Every structure is written in structure tokens, then in C-alpha cells.
Amino acid sequence: MGSTLAAFLVSVLAGLAVWREQLDRTEASLVASSRAIMIAAERELDQAAALGRGLSVSRLLALGDIASFASQARKAIGDYRYGLVLSAADGGRELWNTYTGAITETAQTSRNLSPRPNGGATVHRAVVNGDWITFVDTVLEDQQGMARYILSIGIPTSAFQSMINDQKLAAHWNPVILDADWTIVARGQHPERFVGKKGAGQEYQDAPDTDRVREVRVLEGIPSMSAHSRSARYRWTSAVAMSKRAIVEDSIVSIAWAAASSLAIVFCAVGLVWLATIRLARGIRSLARTAVTIGAGEPGELAPLPVRELEQVAEGLRRAASEIKQTNSQLEARVAEATLKLTEEMEERSRAENALAQAQRLESLGQLTGGIAHDFNNLLMVVGGFLPRLKAAASSDARAVEAANAIALAVNRGASLTRQLLSFARRQPTNPVAVNLSESLEGLRYLLCSTLGRDVDLKIETAAGTGSARIDANEFELALLNLVLNARDAIKGRGQVTISAKPVTLGAQSGATRLAGDYVAVSVADTGSGMALDTRARAFEPFFTTKEQGRGTGLGLSQVHGFAQQSGGAAIIDSVAGRGTVVTMYLPRADAANPEIASEAPSPTCGGVALLVEDNSEVAAVTKDVLDQLGFEIHVAGDADQALRLVNERQFDIVLSDIILPGSLNGVELARRLRAAHPTLPIVLATGYAGAASDAASEFVVLRKPYGLGELQEAISRVLVRAKNG
């Protein structure tokens, strides 16, 4: 009885262990499959967005030649499954539609078209010719920031359906892809019935945690367990569901096999041992009777001992051992198979996690550097703001003045470091400023040398009087890096690359540049094999490349061309096969006449009553000191609500507010509310966070932290001039 109970307990424990292992394995497989589908869908959307950005810089589109642009776009797409729709931004009139075949030969010209900066790509879905199409939209703007075209890249439902089919999941698994509105894009089971409808489990749409298994009831009404994975960029979700009944059936089969094997082995072993015990007991009793007979003086014969039975028992034990070995071999084979499958799943999970981490890296880095910039710039603001008073107070002490100058240098270096972090993270809005090219090129020397490698000789030559160019510093660095990378590939990692800058004056519509006026020519020359004439003619076209498959996207020189044109200049290529290549960017000089800037020259401020809105007490103290030097009577508010109360109580001549504020309103929202109530009230915003500045720069004068007396006086003068001119 005790042996039977022990066998039963062993079988129960083995079954429970198999049950738990089966559930964990199933949940891990659901999560890995869901993540793999989401990565594939996100990659498809990213590819369509990259295609839209690449086509948006086509010069044919800027010239309004829609027919030629359509031909160029068809060549770029080739036999791929994408469709394209080009629409005018004003009214949505379609200029070209590959689905209907409609095309407008020409459209209004608009120089210097470029994708909307920091706008990203938007996604919408629509039914075309009876099929759901996912469109990835890119808005094209002119140099004044006005939207001109909307280029939509269409992805058919079959593309997402293929992603699901390529996973080769079990027949009783139900994968699904959902868009940002929780509408079904593709589905493993019965897609013809459910594509375009709202998906199950909509209550998990805004759940903060993803990549986990939850209970849902699928659209067929079957209770299931479903793993969800979400795209942070597009807010799409993938899910893989398995019915609870199928999970239980799989687990029961595994438990039954394990329990049956364990019980069979245990009962066989117990039976053989019990039989051997009985046979041995009989032999022992026979020996005892013989011993009693001999002790009584009677002759006794020794009964034969059951040696043969013991041999039979031994043979039975040998058979049991063989069966145990065979069962163990089967179990080891199953464990090895399960281990191999688990290893493959872990490798797939690792690949999926690496892909997801790579896709989210820039966004995470942007958030990190934005936060660092905000806090670090506030610290620099406090240190740099009080330096003028320290210098004035210590003017008679040479060592103190020297120390103050060292502090000022450290503040400037800290501000430069913050700008470099923001530039690397691509969080700064496009902002043409005067860039000293000699200093900029020398500052990039280390990065460019590291890019080229030790076998390439880099020379940087700056002519006297080169001066500054009015450009976006971040885009200039990216364009220069693209040119250096092309030069490195041209010389095959060994040779010489020369970067030169010099001032030039171009005559009316001179040469290939078609420019006139004062410019700075920045050239990158290599000693490579050069370009053939037909290659040079197409070098600036999007997606055109002579590199091997996987070595280049064909968008590097397109970015250089777009940057130069957007800056008000041009880019040209001078190359002869066998004699190297020289790519020259003509960039407008910063000291050239600029009517827009001259028309808004600031006039001196003359004091008044100022409202300062700042939650950081140290920053408020230094800003109040600077405003006091400008002759203002200052009132301080710690948040937007307090500022609104003060404005309602009395009249102010100017409002200076930080953008990042505590409470229900930030600085931009406060400024908009004040402008709505007091249209003529001058407002200046200040921030150390570049992302916040990009949202407000088009509406208000934005002052970047850290700033000093001169920068603040210039900003105040500008808003006062604007208010005076209406």
C-alpha cells in the first residue's frame, strides 16, 4: 500500500512539473512570436517612410515636373509592391496616383523642397479598389515652411499578411496586426472576415506594459491567452493568441505521457522486488525447518535453495534496468529537443530585443540629452549670470579677474558641450546661424580622422578671409560627414582626403551654380578613381549608388544637395575618371546683406515693468539681477497660474517666462493664453531644452539658456520692436 502511494505521489509531482514547464514555454513562444511580427511590421513602415523622405528631395518635384518625377519614382521602387499618391497640400488635389493611373504633367514650381523637419511620418489607412491600403505620409515644405505636397507611400494588406504567414506558426495560434486605432490590419485566421474591424482586447490598447500574456476573448468568442507587443513610433500593436482549450490539451498530453511512464516504471520495479522477496522468504523458511529437524537429532535433508528463482529475479531486474535506460534515453532525447527549441527561441528573442533596442536608441538618447540640457543649462545660467557682477566687484584684483575669466570660459565650454549633445541626438530644430567655418572644421578634425582611419591622410585648408556662413550647424556637419565617407570609399581606405574652404564672389547666374553674390566654397577632394560622366550626372539623384549591395543607401549625396539648396546655395561635382573627385558646397556668407534681419534691427530698451515667470529660485535670482541692470521693475511668479493672476491685477510692459514650468500650463501655453487676452503684450520665452524651443520658435522670440546681459537685451529689444510695429 505504501509503495503504491509513493508511486502515485511521484506521478503527480512529475505531472505538475511538466504542466508548469509547458505553460512557461507556451507563454514565452507567444511573446517572442508577437515581438517578431511587430518588428517586421515596424521595419516595413520605416522603409516606406525612408522612401518618402528620399523621394521628397527630388529636384524634378521642386521644378513641378510631375511626369518626370513619376518616372524617377517608378525606377526607385522597381518591382516592389509599394504604390504612390502625390497630392497638393492645399485642398488635397491628387497630382499622381499609381492606383488609378491619374497623373498631372506639371504643377506649381517651388524651390528647395524638403521634408517637414522633426515632423516624422504619419500613417493612415484607406480602402482602395476594394483592398485596405496603409499609407505612410511625408509632408513636403518649401523654404518658408509652407506645406506644398503630401507624398503617400501605399503598402497593401498582403504585405502585412505575408509577415504573419512567414512566421509559420502553429495552426491553432492566431496572430494579428492592429493599427493605432486598434483596427485589424492583418490576421492569421479568417482575415477575409475580420480585416478592417476593431480587434479583441481593446481594453489593453493604452496599457503601459507590453510583451506580456493576457486573457482575451477573440472575435470568434473563444477564451484565449494573448501576447501583445507595441511599436513606440507608430502606436501599432501585434498580438498572438492561443485558445485556453488548446493550451490545456497540449499540457494534458505531456502530463499523461510523463505520468504513464513514471507509473509503469515504478510498478514494474515494485512488483519484481515483491516477487523476489516472497521467493527468498520461502527459501529461508525451508532452511529454518531443516535446521530444527537436525537440532532434534533427526536426519534432515537440505532442501534445494531457490537459486534459479534468484536468477529469475536478477533477470527481471535486468529487464527493468533496460526499460529504465530506454525510458531515460527517450526522456533525454525529449529534453535535448526541448533545450534546442528553447535555445532557438532565446536566440530569436535576443535578435528581436536587439532590433527593438536599435530602433528606440535615437528616441531614448534624445530624451536623455534633452533632460540633461535642461538641468545643465539652468546651472550654467546661474553661474554665468552672476559673472559680470563678480568681475565688476573684483576689477581691482588681477587674480580674481583671472579666476572669473576662467569661470566664464568653463561656462562657454559647458554650453558648447550641451549643444554638441543635442546635435548628436538630433533634437535641435533647424536654425540657420553664423558658423565660423575655420573653427567648425578644426573642431570636426578628430571625428573625421576617426571616420577615415589611420591609413588616410586628412588635410584641412582654410583660406584667409573665409569668415562665417549662415547655415544650420548640425546639417552642415552631417553633409560634411557624408562627403568624407564617400571619399573614404572612393580611395578604398588608403590615400588622401583634402577639405578646403575659401570665400568666393559669383557673378550673375554664374556657371553650374546659377548663383550670384558672396559665398563660401567648402570642398572635399579625394585621390580616388573618380566618376564617369554618366555617373556624375546622376550622383545627386535619390537612391542612386555605385556601391555594392548593402554598402550604401544612395541618399548621402542627396542630403548634401538638399542641405546646400535649403541653405540658399548649391552643390556641384567636379570629377574625371582616374583623377579623383571634388565635391563643392557653395554656402551663403553670414556677413552678406540680409534684408529680413536688417528690417528687424533691435533698438535699445528703456526699462519698464517686467513679469518674470521662473520656478527655479537660483535662475530667477540671476535673471532678476540682469533685468534690474536693464532698468526694469521686476515682479516674479513661480508658475503659470500665479503669472495669470498678476497680469490680471496690473499692467506689464514685458513678460519673460521659462518654458518648462510646474502646474497645469507650461511656458508656451501661458504665452498663448496671454497673447489671446493681451495681443500687444511683448513676450520672451527662455529654455535650456531644445525640444521645447522647437515648439515655440515659430510663434515667439525664444532665448536659449544660458544667456547673458547682451542676449537678453537683444531679445527684449526685438519683441519691443515687433510690438511697436504691430
The largest sheet, given as strand count, sense and whether it forms a barrel, is:
6 strands, antiparallel
Number of strands: 23
| Percentage of residues assigned to helices | 40-55%
- The name CATH uses for the topology of the largest domain is Beta-Lactamase
Gap from first CA to last CA: 102 Å
C-alpha Rg, in Å?
Answer: 38 Å
Count of spatially separate domains: 3
Class per helix and strand makeup: alpha+beta
How much beta, percentage-wise? 15-25%
CATH architecture of the largest domain: 2-Layer Sandwich
Notes on the structure:
This protein is an alpha+beta fold. The chain folds into three domains: 1-305, Beta-Lactamase (2-Layer Sandwich); 432-592, Heat Shock Protein 90 (2-Layer Sandwich); 598-725, Rossmann fold. The chain is 50% helix and 21% strand. It has 20 helices and 23 strands. Strands 1, 2, 3, 4, 5 and 6 form a six-stranded antiparallel beta sheet that branches. The protein has a five-stranded antiparallel beta sheet with strand order 8-7-11-10-9. Strands 13-15-16-18-17 form a five-stranded mixed beta sheet. Helix 16 links the parallel strand 19 (608-613) and strand 20. The chain is extended.
